[in-house]
Amino acid sequence: MQQRIGPVFIPAGAANAFPDPRTADRDGLLAIGGDLSVERLLVAYESGVFPWYGDGLPVLWWSPDPRAVMDVETLHVSRSLRRRLQRGGFELSWNRAFGKVLRACGEERDTGTWIIPEMIVAYERLHRRGHAHSLEVWEEGRLVGGLYGVQCGGLFAAESKFHRRTDASKIALVAAVRSLFARGVRLFDVQFLTSHLRSLGAREIAREEYLQRLERACDLKVDLTSLDPARFV
């Protein structure tokens, strides 16, 4: 087993590479520094690493152990949520309002936000290059929920979600899991397990298992450009 050595400093202008994720510290912090260029972000996700930090801090790169994931086989839709889905009254879309979803996810909360301006710029750049996607939930023409994430082959790394109506973020997550797996995604990453995600069927797996699944997923060719999430709700 790779020994933990703690976070490594990435100087400005360094190559787009990361240490072995297995060398992260106990909290999962792997590296500090670098930038949020498209190229570095793609290498990060393909390596099992993601950025997460607050305003005024250098970029912090993480690879936690265990890692939280969702699988379509274990997706849990409660009776009340099932009734909500059957009742309808909402519209789902894909990549219609990426910037709006991103900013809504970054709205200030009691615990603060890590979706700071430089993150918004970086992920909008990823979106324009076809590597980041959003799923939107609309009600009477108004954006009431959604999520966004990064795709690398058969990996979809869900970054954040939001809701302005009860159950809107749950609807977005259920639609995303069902439609993305149907299209060919094989690894749906949610990073950290929360009670909310657990209630929807998310679970933790060891980082080693995650990295093995990640390698297989990233080798796949999955086209998400014309996804229709409404077909799977």
What does this structure look like?
38% of the residues are buried. It is globular, with a radius of gyration of 17 Å. α3 (98-105) packs antiparallel against α4. It folds into two domains: 8-64, Alpha-Beta Plaits, CATH 3.30.70; 68-232, Aminopeptidase (3-Layer(aba) Sandwich), CATH 3.40.630. It has helices at residues 38-46, 79-87, 98-105, 117-128, 168-183, 195-199, 207-218; strands spanning 8-10, 29-33, 50-51, 60-62, 67-70, 91-94, 132-139, 142-152, 155-163, 187-191, 203-205. The longest helix has 16 residues, at 168-183. The strands form two sheets. A seven-stranded mixed β-sheet has the order 6-7-8-9-10-5-11, with helices on both faces. Strands 1-2-4-3 form a four-stranded mixed β-sheet, covered by helices on one side. With 233 residues, it is of the alpha+beta class. The mean pLDDT is 95.
State the CATH topology of the largest domain.
Aminopeptidase
Q: In percent, how helical is the residue content?
A: 25-40%
User: If classified by CATH, what would the architecture of the largest domain be?
Assistant: 3-Layer(aba) Sandwich
Q: Overall mean pLDDT score?
A: 95
Gap between N and C termini: 42 Å
Strand order of the largest sheet: 6-7-8-9-10-5-11
What is the count of distinct domains?
2
CATH class category of the largest domain: Alpha Beta
Number of strands: 11
The parts where pLDDT drops under 50 for at least 5 residues are: none
CATH superfamily of the largest domain: Leucyl/phenylalanyl-tRNA-protein transferase, C-terminal domain
Q: Mind summarizing the main beta sheet?
A: 7 strands, mixed
- Give the overall shape, derived from the CA principal axes: globular
Q: What integer value in Å does the Rg equal?
A: 17 Å
Structural class, please?
alpha+beta
Total DSSP helices: 7
What percent strand? Answer: 15-25%
What is the chain-wise order of helices and strands?
Answer: EEHEEEHEHHEEEHEHEH
